[in-house]
Structures are given as structure tokens and as C-alpha cells.
Amino acid sequence: MTNPILTIKNLTKKYGDNVVFHDINLTVNEGDTIVIIGPSGTGKSTLLRCINLLTRADEGQVWLDDKEITAKDCDEDVVRQHIGMVFQNFLLFNHLTALDNVLLGLTKVKHMKPEEAKVKALMELERVGLSDRAGHYPGQLSGGQQQRVAIARALAMDPRIMLFDEPTSALDPELIGEVSDRIVFLEKGSIVEEGTPDELFYHPQHERTREFLWKITELYGKKETGKIDG
Amino acid sequence: MKRLILLVVVLTLTLAIVGCASSTDHLAAIKDAGKLVVGTSADYPPFEYVDEVGNTTGFDVELMNEIGKRMGVTVEWTDMPFDSLIAAVQEGKIDMTIACMNYDEERDKTVDFSDAYYTSEDALVVLEGFTGDLTDPMNMANYTVGAQSGTTQDGWITDNLVTPGLLPEDKFMRYERVDQVALDLQAGRIDVMMSDYVPAQAIVDQFGGMKVVYHGVLSTGPLNIVIPDGDKNLQAELNRIIKELQAEGFIDDLAVKYFSE
Amino acid sequence: MDVARFLQYIALGTVYTVGVTLIALPSGLILGTLFALLNVYSGKVVKWFTSLYSTMMRGIPPIVLLFILYFIVSGNINLSPFWAGSISLGIVSSAYQMEIIRGAILSVSGGQMMAARAIGMSKSQAIRNVIFPQTLRLAIPPWSNEAAIVIKDSSLVYALGVPEILRRAQLISASTQQPFLAYAAAAAIYFILVFVTNRLLDALERRLRIPANP
Ligand SMILES: Nc1ncnc2c1ncn2[C@@H]1O[C@H](COP(=O)(O)OP(=O)(O)O)[C@@H](O)[C@H]1O
Ligand SMILES: [Mg+2]
């Protein structure tokens, strides 16, 4: 038995009268890759932002390991170090080179010594295959390269979990099935159904899931997906 | 000579907020420091102006330097626009101001005056070819007139000609400085310039092609040094020295030197 | 009349003009930046106050403000007209610089703040390391404009008795009856000062520009 690394309980988020999602319950075990799929505007991005506390949920709790991070006395800045996030549009620091993008968190947040930090940052860039682009600014990199720098920046912090917001616009459902342990189908702010890729893709229990899958097969490759990678 | 305008109102309001006045004896403090800070507006030759090496000089300046010498202190000159001078005296930024100013009831409420050190007159200046009649200054009503804004001449024209409706508002031009009035007279934009007699004389000499058609005491008169309100010791000291200088003929000599009377 | 001497006298006013500018601009930048940060990143009340400050300061003619500030500043502390005038001008300029910095902060996308927070930076770390370096680059061109305005507005301190270029031109104009010469000299000096400043800031902006593919 593995331990839950992330536990979400009754999470609800509203913007004024607009209930983005309500009563979300989700448990993620160490080593699991969870993919959240659902139509645009369902609240996938908002859910991810609520997990790393960039946005505050209105109700419910989130635990990272056995610590409740939504608790009042919990230091957000410390929590975020343990939760890596790769944004949909990457959000690299525009004024810094690829290397400095990765370095900044190491020196300013982890307070590593400059030489040590540099070795680690270069290693992270190496991991995403971009060591030859270390001196390039975001504006000089392609979208894919920017995404990899963003991944290196997040991984460099040695997070417990990684959140990716729509990393896979180019991935087809097959591929999603291959990388994920579990798929969660989110619609209109609540979880409709969840299961293994095989269960969800080939034996969906709900009519709404079937409809959605049918639509994305039509629009092959244009579907929206969010992913939680534990 | 000159009269203060709106800015003083603004300044006085501000001063009221800020509050002021120290009560130690000012004269003693000046003598202790060995230094007298005097403000003037050095754009009014020949009373006060800068010479070719940038020194402040003129009738008022040389007189004040002599007064300082007799008080046993050196005079430190601070130049500022005319409109700022009274406020600066009230605020204690300067010890006193000598700037071709004359006694004025309004001003007397907020500052004090020395005895007169000289008596000045007004002049009406026109171009050489002028054929009109200005033997009575009220005849200015028939012409386009110019004066330096904020001066006693400005006040005289406003009170005696413009307000009674004799001179239309658009036929009276106010300028920031007296040399600008002269330039517009030369250019024919105005027919008559009204100013202090002595600077008028200097302008006529410098510009050429102009003449003084009238001079006499209208708006102006005796010139006084302006000191902080209620500063009796300083006032007495100044009056004593002024009397001394008048008796010795020093001031008359200065007048000849600067006004070539 | 010795023209060279008079011109030299006017030119010496440059020392004061440059001095006033060198005090007013940075003090306005510090104040303006502080207010801009408060305006963008603090609560409603502070936001309201800083907005009010900006609106009021920019709604009053600089010369009027200068007088009021001068007598408040130098009424309480014994400052020379030079220092009091420079600081007052800095306060006037701070409202304009606040708007420049505020605009620049707002045009750095909100996402940059989010990305910085996401790696565990505190708000102030994010402002210092991510928002600010980008803000300052964006602010250089409008700031260059403000620098030119402050150089020209520095002539206002003549009203407080600081013998800068404009005041000297007035004095020379009065004593020589040659206004054109005096003011042309003043205009030429102001022009050179503004021109050089703008060029230097242009160069700085080019140097700091973030490289990107065309
Ligand atoms: N900052 C915000 N203020 C108000 N409404 C928001 C905000 N962010 C997201 N929303 C709303 O929340 C809903 C979910 O958005 P989002 O999480 O981006 O959906 P998804 O990522 O699934 O496409 C949308 O209706 C969106 O308009
Ligand atoms: Mg989204």
C-alpha cells in the first residue's frame, strides 16, 4: 500500500455567484499520474491553482502528505516550494535566461550557494534536453522549449508533486492513457466519473462521459486536458 | 513702487498653517552672526540688477551694503522674484528686503517699514514721434497703456482708469518685467508705458527713440526697507543709519551716480 | 556690454539646474515607486489614498504646489531654497513618476507574479526579483519624458530665489535690455540638457532591452 500524497476533501470554489467547482474529493497516491479531463471552463485550471494555494478555495481542505495546507497557520510560501507547477502558457520570467529562470528559485527560495545552484540548474536543463539553450531568453525559445524550461524550473525545487496545466494539447487520448494511472472526468464543476484509462476510455459509465469522449475523438487532438502528476 | 498680487495671498495662507516667528532679539542675532541676509529682485535697474560679472548691484544694493557696514555686518544678497520677497521676510528666510518698495497699508499689516530712504516718482514714457497730450496723466484713458504687473503703477492705472471704466480692460497690458513693457512700446503695441521715473529714464537712454512726457508723484513716493513685523530694534537701527546717510549726503551722491540726476 | 561674460553668467546657472534635477528626479523616483507599489499591491484604503495623492498632485499647477510645499518643507526644517526647492519639485514629480511606475507594473503580466509565487517566492521577493526588473525596463521611455519635464520645471525654483538658468536669463535680460540674447542662451542650454539626458536614457534602454527573436 502506498500513502496518499495529496488528499482533497469537499473542495469548493466560487467567484461571486459563479460556482466554479464544488465538493471535489480526490486522493492521489505517491507515484501516481492523474489526468483530469473535461470541457473548457470546467474549472481544471482553477482546481490546480487551489491546490498550490495561488487561489484560495472557499470551502474544503487539501492535505499534502499528512499536513493540511489549507489550514490558516500554514505558510503558503513553504507549501508552494513543495508543489511544482507548469502553467499553460509557461510564464517564464521574461527578463531572465533559461538558466537564470531555473536558478532564481534555487538561490532566492532555497538559499543555495551560487556555485551549487548553478550546477543543479544546469543539471535540470540537461534533464529536459536544453543545456545548449541555457543562455537564451524566453523570447528566443520556441513554445516547446519554453515549456521544458518551465518544467526544469519547477523540478529544480524538488517538489513532492507536480501540477501541469494543459501540457498535452498535442497528445491524443491513446497517449494520455499510456502515461496516466487514473483519469478523472470533470464537468460543470464536479467529478462525473473516474477510473483507469481503460475503464474510462473504453467502458465509461456515464452518458456525459461518453458524449465528451465522442466529441474529443471528433476534434482529435484539440481537447483540453489537465494533469496531476504525482 | 510695486504691489503684491495673488501669490502673496496663497503664501500668507500657507504661512498661517505653518506658523512662524521666533521672539529672540533679531538685531542682536544679526550682529552676533556678523551677517545680514537681504533679499531683492535684481531685475530692476538701476535700483537692483546684475553687472557684467554677475554681482548684484544698483542704487538699493550699494545703499544697503553701506548700511550693513555701519551696522558692523556683511550683507549677504539673496535674489528672488519680487512677488516672493514679502513672504520671505515674514517667513524669516531673509532678514529684510530692499527692492524699490514703498509703504503700503496692506503690507503694513504683515510687515514693518523703515523710514523713507529716497522719494521716487512715476513717469509716462512714449515714442519720440508721439504727438498726443499727456500733461494730465488721466489722458492715458485715450491710449493703449502698459505697465509691469503687480507694481504700484499697475495699481494706479487699475484704480483710476480701468475700474472707473475710463480705460477698457483690453487697452491695458500688464507685463512680468519692465523691460518687456519697453519692448512692446518700441514695437508699437502700446502707446504709453507707466513706470518708476528712474528706471524709465534708464530705459529711455538704453533703448533710444523714446521720451518721458510726464513725471511726478502719482502711485509711488517714498521708498522703504521692509522688515519683519514688530521688529522695533532693527527699525530703530535702520532709521538711525538712514538719517546719518542722508545728513552726510551719501544717498544724494548715490542717486546722482545711478540716476544721473 | 560684455556678451561673453553675460553668457557665462547664464551658463553658470546650469550648475543649479542640474543640481535641482539630480535631487528632484531621484527623490521623485523613490517616492513615486513607493506609492506605485502601495497603489498596486496594497489594500483598498491605501490604494485610495495613493490615487488621491496622484490625482491631486497632478491636478495642481507645479508652481502653486512648489510654493505650498516650499513653505511647508522649509517652514518646519531650516533648509536652503535650493534644497527645499529641489525636494518640493521631487514631490511634485513623484506623482507623475508614480503613474509611470504603476503603468509599467501593470503592464508586466499578472502571470509573472503568479509564476514567482508558484516556486515559493514571497510577494516581496517576487516584486524585487521578477516584477521590478521588468518594470524598470518598461518605465525607461516614459521616465525619459519625465526627466525632460523635470529639467524644464527646475526653472520654477527661480521663484524661490535659486539662481538657475532662467532666473539668470531674466536678470541679464533686465540689465542689458537684450531679452532675445539672454533667453536664446537659456533655451540652448535647456535643449542641450534635455537632449543629452534623453540620449543617455535611450542608450540605457537599448542596453537593458531583453533579447528576443524578431
Ligand atoms: N480570477 C477569476 N475571476 C472570476 N472568474 C474566474 C477566474 N478564474 C476563472 N474563473 C472562472 O472559472 C471558471 C473555470 O475556469 P478555468 O479553471 O480556467 O477552467 P478550465 O481550466 O477548466 O478551462 C470559468 O467560468 C472562468 O470564467
Ligand atoms: Mg484551463
What structural keywords apply?
heterotrimer, A: about 230 residues, 6-stranded mixed beta sheet, 4-stranded antiparallel beta sheet, 8 helices, 10 strands, C: about 210 residues, mainly alpha, MetI-like fold, globular, binds adenosine-5'-diphosphate, binds magnesium ion
Poorly predicted sequence stretches spanning 5 or more consecutive residues of chain B: 1-23
Radius of gyration of chain B: 19 Å
Sheet with most strands of chain B: 5 strands, mixed
End-to-end Cα distance of chain A: 15 Å
* Order of secondary-structure elements of chain A: EEEHEEHEHHHEHEEHHE
Order of the strands making up the biggest sheet of chain A: 6-7-10-3-8-9
> So what's the CATH class of the largest domain in chain B?
Alpha Beta
Number of domains of chain B: 2
Strand percent estimate of chain B = 15-25%
Bound small molecules, deduplicated: adenosine-5'-diphosphate, magnesium ion
Shape of chain B: elongated
Secondary-structure-derived class of chain B: alpha/beta
Q: Could you tell me how far the N terminus lies from the C terminus of chain B, measured between alpha carbons in angstroms?
A: 19 Å
- Residues in helices of chain A, as a percent range: 25-40%
Which CATH-level-2 architecture of the largest domain in chain B?
A: 3-Layer(aba) Sandwich
Structural commentary:
The complex is a heterotrimer of chains A (230), B (261) and C (214). Chain A is α+β, with helices and mostly antiparallel strands and 230 residues long. Chain A is 34% helix and 27% strand. Chain B is of the alpha/beta class. Chain B has helices at 6-18, 26-33, 59-71, 82-91, 105-108, 152-162, 178-186, 197-207, 232-248, 250-259; strands spanning 35-40, 49-50, 56-57, 74-79, 96-97, 111-113, 118-119, 122-127, 145-148, 172-175, 192-196, 210-216, 222-223, 226-228. In chain B, strand 2 (49-50) and strand 3 form a beta hairpin. The relative contact order of chain B is 0.19. By secondary structure, chain C is mainly α. Chain C has 8 helices and no strands. Chain C starts with a helix and ends in a 6-residue tail after the last helix. The chains are: A alpha+beta (230), B alpha/beta (261), C mainly alpha (214). Chains in contact: A-C, B-C. The interface between B and C is medium-sized, with 39 and 30 residues. Bound molecules: adenosine-5'-diphosphate and magnesium ion (MG). Residues 15, 20, 40-46 of chain A line the site of adenosine-5'-diphosphate (ADP).
